Structure formats: C-alpha cells, structure tokens
C-alpha cells in the first residue's frame, strides 16, 4: 500500500508541475519597446505623450449651495425671452422645439411640404401735435400692419401685407386741434393689399420635381413684390413684378468673399417722385422699372452697386430716365464706421415747358464713431450734398434723405414735421448720438441743418431757404409685446414759418 501510495503521489506532483509550466507558457510575454501600440493619426499630426501633471483635481462645490442665477451669469446673464405670439398660428408653430410631425411629400420627397399659416404684425396708436408752418394739426391716429405668411416648404411661401386702417396716406384718426377743416373722427378703412407675392428657390423646386439633388441656388419672388435696397435710400417700394438673385458667389482671384447679384423688374404700381401725372400727383401706373444690383464683400469692405431704367408710357414717357448708384462701407482703424453713397440720374428729356424731375446727383456720407461701448453708444455724423433734382429709384413718396437723421424723417401717421428730405440743390447733415443703455431702451438726440444752393425760393426746390432743427427720440419696451416711443422736434426755417412737433406712440406687437 505504502509503495503504491508513494507512486501515486509522485505522479500527481509530476502532473501538477507539467500543468504549471503549460499555464506559464500560455501567458503572453511583454511586447518589446519597438512593438508598442501607437494610435493611427492623420498625416502631419504628431503623437504627444500623456502628462498627468497637466490635469488637476475636479472642482468640489460641497460647501457652496446651488445658485441658478449664478449659472445664468456664466452665459452673460442670457436667458429665454418670451416672444410675442402671432395673432393667428396654424400648423407648425413659429420658434418651437421638436419633435416634429412627418412632412408631406406631395411636391416630391426632396422638397418636403411643411404647411403653416401665420398672421402677425403690430398696432400703432399715436397722439401728436404737428405744426408744419402753414398747417397745424393735433390728432390721435392708428395704424395696423398685418403680415399674412403661408409657408409651403422650407423655401417656398406666399406672403401678403395689409394696412386696413389707412388709405391714400390718411389714417383712422380723431383730430382735436389745429387749423385744418377735418375736426372730429374719421375712419379710413382699407381692404387693399399692400403686397402679395410668391417667394421660392429654383433649386429645391427642381429637386422635388425630379427627385434628384442639385447644386442650384436661385431664389426668386414674383407678384406684388416689395424690394428694399441700400437701406431704402435707393429703393424702398412694392410694385407688380419680381426679382431673382444669384447669391453667395466668391472669387479668390478678385478677393471677393461673398457676392449677391439681383435682377428685378416692375411693371405697375411703381412709386417714384420722378413721375407726375397731369395734376402733379405721383403716377403709379404706366411706369416700368428694369434694374440690377450687386452686393460685394471685398477687401475688408462692402460694395453696393445698382442700375435701373424707369420707362414711362404715353404722357409719362417724357420723364423716363436712368438711375445709377454706388456705395462703399467699411471700418477704419477701429475708430469709425463709414459709408459713402452716390446716386445719379440722367437721360430725362421732358417736353418743352416741362421741368425735369430726375436730373441730379446726391452724395451721402454716413459716419459713426466706435467708442468703448460700440454696441450701445453710437455718436454719428451724416452729411450730404445734392445737386439739381436727384431721385431714388422708388421711395414710396419719401425723400432720399430719409436715413440722414431723425430730423429728416416723418412718422407718416400724424404728419410729424421734418426738414426738406429731397436733397434738391441743398447740402447739410445731422450730428447726433444714440444710446441703447443695456439694450433695453434707446434715446437719440440730434441737431441737423439744410443749406440751400442758389437763391431763396427757387422753383423746384422744396426748401425755401436754410433750415435748422433739433430732435429728440426715446423708446422703451415695457414688455415683450408693448413698446412706448416719444418724439419731439423744432425746426427754424429762414423766410418761412418754423416747424414744431411732439408725439407719443404706443405699439402692440403680435
């Protein structure tokens, strides 16, 4: 027994030794230094060894209670702002979060339909007193602006604009003072459309029709179409016609980082002070306008170029003329923002005994000083010089100096007074300051002048003689939907009566 037991013990020990050797052999040996794993990287990228010393411990806030206001301050105190909701909002809501319902594809899978209808705008209620020299008036007036927007796809929509409380430049109002013959209240109800147009993009429309992606980017608008160019100085009008744009082009050879080119055509409802009917009123019909404009970002500056030909029919053919403009804007040495604009008119040939209405040139120079609070404190100096009778291409019966300063601007509701804004044989400017506080209110203070060229009282120039004015404006949003604004101005005019006006406006946005 003892011998047998000893043999078994020896056999067991031997088997255990063999098993241990086999297990040791199965463990992989450490890789040699030259075989260490190195992450794959893109060409030109170098691998850097990890350094634990570059990192510290995570911060601990156990001794600090959670403060939500302090968290907002991390992002500059920004937070959600309750936006006013549209008057009517059908379909997908504006400014809303997902998830969204699946879109319809009846216009093609590559141009999904997301229909929704919005009606939005504002109601302005204004009380004011205006003394325009020969006439004075005190009144409470209202203006309702309604935008109707029917969105079809992401790039196609039908849009309309209405002003139901005014017509023929007269507003629903109650007059309480002045020397006019319209004492009492007048309703000016108007169901006419101010605009009605279709807006789309050729590329997405073709994608939906063909089912194939393309590289076409060609937005367009057609109908009773509004167009605003050069901040409305050269063109601010809505007329029957359309426009098409070649957008977002660039050229490294010409140092152009971005360029848009727009061609447009108006066939009716053109508002141009250059065309007057037999009674001297602005003629909206029988005038066609053909034009092209370009916006070019190049060499640290911004160019605006434009050409238009206004073609009158019948009696108005004598007022047909060419209109050209060029503007350049840029900042200089982080000290001043400057824009220089030139608008010139030529080619008008009226009948014998009829005066030209568009045969001049105007130079506009706009400057704003860049100070230590550039987003809220803006000192500005805008100057101009106009020779003969310069005209914008279409201005809805407003003068070419409408953006020169607040003393050249009227509210178009209460007949608020202004200096002559035509630039017909005049030069001058506006010096002022705009302050936005903490972006929650605004005050503008300004002095301005209009200096005539030639003799006082010359025919064809609205300004009888030299003019001077001071103006003040203050506005503040009292909620996300209500804005209060107040304006005051006084103008001294040599040779004729002075100007004066005050107004208070309450605006409700929806």
Describe what this molecule looks like in 3D.
By secondary structure, the protein is mainly β. It folds into three domains: 83-194, no CATH class; 218-403, no CATH class; 411-510, no CATH class. It has helices at residues 2-26, 68-73, 202-210; strands at 88-91, 113-131, 136-153, 157-162, 166-167, 170-178, 184-186, 193-201, 219-229, 235-251, 256-268, 287-298, 301-312, 321-332, 336-346, 361-369, 377-387, 426-435, 442-452, 467-477, 482-493, 499-509. The chain has an 18-stranded antiparallel beta barrel. Mean pLDDT is 89; it is low at 1-33.
Secondary structure layout plus pairing:
Blueprint: H1 2-26, H2 68-73, E1 88-91, E2 113-131, E3 136-153, E4 157-162, E5 166-167, E6 170-178, E7 184-186, E8 193-201, H3 202-210, E9 219-229, E10 235-251, E11 256-268, E12 287-298, E13 301-312, E14 321-332, E15 336-346, E16 361-369, E17 377-387, E18 426-435, E19 442-452, E20 467-477, E21 482-493, E22 499-509
Antiparallel strand pairs: 1-2, 2-3, 2-22, 3-4, 3-6, 4-8, 5-6, 6-7, 8-9, 9-10, 10-11, 11-12, 12-13, 13-14, 14-15, 15-16, 16-17, 17-18, 18-19, 19-20, 20-21, 21-22
